[in-house]
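TEACHING EXERCISE
Course module: macromolecular assemblies
Task: Read the component lines below, then compare them to the predicted structure of the full complex.
Student: A.B.
Group: 4
Components provided:
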Amino acid sequence: MREPHATGDFCIRTPGRRIVIIGNGISGITCARHIRKRDSEAHITIISGETEHFFSRTALMYIFMGHMTYAHTKPYEDWFWEKNRLHLVHDWVTSINFEQKELQLQQQEPLTYDILILALGSKPNKFDWPGQGLQGVQGLYSYQDLQMMNDNTANCQHAVVVGGGLIGVEMTEMLLSRNIPVAFLVREEGFWRSILPKEESDLVMRHLREHHVDLRLNTELKEIRDDGTGRVSAVVTTAGEEISCQFVGLAVGVQPNIDLVRNTELVVNRGILVDQHFATNIPNVFAIGDCAEYRVPVPQRQSIEQVWYTGRMHGETLAHSLTHQPVKYNPGPWFNSAKFFDIEYQTYGMVPNRWKQPVDSFYWEHADGIIAFRAVFNGEDKRLHGVNGLGLRLRHEFFDQALRENWTVEQVLVKLDQANFDPEFSDRHHREMLQAYNEQFGTNLEPEKKEKKGLLSYFWR
Amino acid sequence: MKAIQKLGLGIFLLALLLFNALLFMGQFRLTEAQLQESVKQEHVEVLRQELQPMLGETYSSSFSFATDFNRLLDNYNEEQQRSQQWDRVIWDDYAFALARVASQGFVENNKLLLLFLTIIVGAAGALLYILPQYRGEPAGVKNNGVMFSSNKSRGVVGITIGVYLTAIYVLLYWYPEYIVNWALLVDPLSYTLSGGPASQWFLYGTIYTLAILVMGVRMFRKYKGNNYQLLRTASVMFFQLSFAFLIPEILVVLNLPWYDLKNIWPLDYDFFFEYSVASMLGSGSAGLFLFIWGILLIIVAVPLFTYFYGKRWYCSWVCGCGGLAETAGDPYRHLSDKSLKAWKVERWMVYPILVIITVITLLTIANYFTEFALLKQSTDMLHQWYGFLIGAAFAGVVGVGFYPLMGNRVWCRFGCPLAAYIGIVQRYKSRFRITTNGGQCISCGNCSTYCEMGIDVRWYAQRGQNIVRASCVGCGICASVCPRGVLKLENGPEQGRITDIPFLTGNESIKVLN
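Instructor-supplied answer key:
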């Protein structure tokens, strides 16, 4: 597909323009905040039926586990919105009239707009399994899903979670926090193998088993059985095994939540098709976040990015285009993070799950088996492609610079001490890692010394 | 919960029950001879007359004894006041001392046994409950169910504990005669350490220290695998046991003033008051050393250590108030108010208190050097009011009593003038900051939720900004509970410490900044 030519002025810029954002997730809210920073006159309206106020979707699991209440997950206090004249409408949009620039709402009066920003988010995938509509079977994405999960697990003796990815492991942790045993069905031969290399996947699986997760690898869901009252009683795997349960968590990915705009003049594929300015085929209508699909993906990136961080960047970028000058979406080096029970995961740059020549990899794992570091690089010129960290914290700015400036893996490894972001007094591993690299690649690298500037250094200098 | 933990909890609760029941036990009988020994010479005659109805009487509890005593003394004092005989009013507080000497019977005769059955068995029960916690579980964040807990979420249990703690502080500060039996319990310990009988303050110190030690062990369990938390907890346990509890008693044995070597003015608000200075300077060269030490802490240690390490060197590593907050108060840390309004209230409270105690101290010193020509004895009144409102009511009753209601750092955040002073240094001249890791924040809110100082940590983290706040005590819990490794407590160059980046790391779409 060819990218439509970007115009210098691709949206209405009259003062007092009415900007309506559908969706109060991280993309929509970031966009609204950044528009307000630069345009004090625009009328900004944010519509959401899910919750009245913005909350952190990534924190849903912590509400279930009792680490936080819903109120704690709101990044801004309730007065913030009125103070910044961000008008909130707590309602569902039922249809959009792109011709009249008008939105129909479920409860309230229709709204008109000059600029429409669609930040509709995702919804859980379902693959037409028999019994997927039964009570006690659900995905986890929205606040309503969380409430449903709370109800569905009230009298649950045993649960099954389907899908070896991030939401799957979160649901598993949530259920175990309430002492509900979980069988975790993973289609691949290892946890999150579509993303993680084997060693990382193995490390995480060891940790899951330590938490008493009943991991079922190479296992797919065939059907979900009824207990006769419309509730789930068991699942059957493709191998024919029946696992009795009162709750099934479906965590087999998410898809853009675009039922609202399907079969309209808005052009969609899996998501709402946008150019590099997040402009759709209809002037003054934009789409950002999980629901947007790039006509031409950014090199090395998916055409749909369903990550907190990319959603936030979409919001920042579009707001800049709407208020300052149109800029193309140009994310820097990829980064992401997750947490698997107690093991934190950070990644910078591109680490594939499998690779072949000339790509090479250096992997180090701590003797305890819960800390690991991988660097993937070009085996010929040693240029770093990306790193994975498990059980250790790495400095974003360090790797952002290393990747932008095309550092070699060796440049990175000798400076790794500076990349350390673990809490003070944590065990340091950079020497051990460098030694492992030296042994593996026949080099003789020494760690770069950093000048210490504490109080004590004044004494022995 | 494992069986052994249930047993431990049961033992602890039984010990607590007995401890409280003690207040209603024992007998009190005041004799003339005891009265003569316990009160000032000039009061003996008056009191013998006024207390005649109760002399030789046997009371079945400290309550009836104290009630009678207070009634008789009040009658006498009121009469004198009515007839304007101000010099004859007895201002001295004899109730506790007389209840002590008058005590006899069960508690008096079984101090050691009861000390064992209440405080020692209670602590052992608590440890039985605490030690098996998280055994066999991997290290990690242990906050499951905090928001569902009645104790930790202002439920019935939490409110009950709050009321109980508040009541204890009220008794301790203003009605110690009612808790004389508790002081008797720790007599054996007090005699061993300093050779003297236990005051209510020795009782308080003992329980306070024990609370830090036992709940410190709980911290070791809860934060296993996190060296920063383990070291920090070990540090407050050490400073409480040695500096705050043992060393002052040893100083007393050496005929020096009771002095907590890590307590710094203006938290130690009476450091410069006449009686403190007199007692230090009247104790020879060692006393002079204590005086100079105290001044060096204020003018050298605070700025120097705060510059290099931030406020945490004191507030969450050394301080006794901080020590209790970080151990016994840890279960309540999330109850602090994170709202912007609370921050405003904080600033309008803590800095004025610093100003007030500074002014009072300066007036006291000026008065002293003008040989009381400046204000006569009226600084005494200022001292009393400050001691009552800030030293007792705020730091004690609200500061600890309200743990289960307002969180564990209410005093440190809204009241402590030393925290205000250190905070100003930390904010404007320090290498300490909490670094935010680029664009990795997911705004989940765990950091803000578990910040005991009520700092909205997420507000900064989600903007990619470092956290530089006067109130931050550097407990490091925000970094511990962060699920994405976004926060790190660091000492580093002052340059680049305070950051304000318009767009988060990772987005290169926008080249033109500002």
